[in-house]
Design goal:
homodimer, 216 residues, mainly alpha, 0% strand
Chain lengths: 216, 216
């Protein structure tokens, strides 16, 4: 019975890592759409999100079946509940990639992000994508050390977010109001993706060590 | 045993309704800070958020204890899991009220929202606060009919959000870039509060009828 339980739990974590990789792809493609203005790539992210939603439903069903059939207690129970939270967070990260793709689609074939903000925005996107990529490995390997390291990256994200504000409120900003609003919202979406990545990593720490995760 | 279970479940839902009322207060005060520029009111929201976080922890502990000790199955299990999700969403709504309060504090004693956007923003805030208030009653009374009605309000929120964009991108906008960015982000925060309110209401529908809630 307990053997079957841990087998099924492993399978849930493997599914979570898969979903995280799907989110990574969504973030990468959304950024590509944003920086190239390609509508087809934006569409791919928007229409592909249903796959992530379905994968989330499957994990939820498996986790609920596990709770129902095995009635885990203590650490095992907390692990299953943590998995349920992780899958919600991963799905939300996918939604945020869709928000990025929708801004790209709204401005296509033009670029939403004007030249002067492009480097900072590309860096935010790269940091977010890298965090998501590493979180997939962290879930797979239950790597506490790497999970702690993800929080450090989040500090760079905060710094980058402040940089975008400095740019768009500065005297040199020639992008106008529309681009400023796009950049502010895009910054918010990437920041939220990073926040969720940190939260998911925190839940891996919790699952492995039993220590409370950082509040999401 | 089952009697004790449903007693405890009722107590969890009563706690959820209480947290929802705390969120309602946070949204109301954050809006007051925003529309009056009062820093002390903004501070009250920001420092008060820890109460909501603590209340969330208590509900989580109770729900986990219930899962652990009573090992509910089927509908009961899904109800406890729904409660865990609801409390996460309520906490997040509190965080979003803090985001509104922080923008208010950043601009104090000035007002973040310029005259021309104030009416729309005040309306968004009123719709959000009203939705949160009704969701508290919906949780208390497990009122499916009212839960369905909350979704309708969300349509008004979407319309209002589009209005703010029309205003700040229109020729008449004299608020400049900083105010446009503030208004865009504030619109996003109120919209997300409304989204979460709809999601929580959807979970009440699920708990009562067993029908899948709207995706959050």
């Amino acid at each position: 019975m307990r053997y079957a339980f841990h087998d099924q739990l492993d399978s849930i974590f493997s599914d979570l890592a898969d979903i995280c990789r799907q989110v990574e792809t969504a973030v990468r493609l959304a950024t590509e759409a944003l920086l190239t203005g390609r509508a087809d790539v934006a569409e791919q992210v928007i229409s592909g999100d249903v796959q992530i939603d379905r994968a989330r439903e499957r994990v939820e069903d498996t986790a609920l079946a596990l709770l129902s059939l095995q009635a885990p207690v203590a650490g095992d129970l907390r692990t299953v509940v943590a998995a349920l939270r992780m899958v919600s967070e991963l799905e939300r990260m996918g939604d945020l990639a869709v928000h990025v793709a929708k801004i790209a689609r709204l401005r296509t074939p033009n670029l939403a992000v004007p030249e002067q903000a492009r480097e900072t925005m590309a860096r935010m996107a790269a940091v977010a994508e890298d965090m998501v990529s590493r979180v997939a490995d962290i879930i797979d390997e239950r790597n506490v050390e790497q999970a702690e390291a993800v929080r450090k990256d989040d500090e760079e994200m905060d710094t980058l977010r402040r940089s975008t504000f400095t740019q768009l409120l500065g005297k040199e900003w020639t992008g106008g109001i529309e681009a400023a609003v796009d950049v502010a919202l895009l910054g918010r979406y990437y920041e939220r993706i990073a926040d969720h990545a940190v939260a998911v990593a925190g839940r891996v720490i919790f699952v492995v060590t039993g220590a409370a995760p950082a509040s999401s």
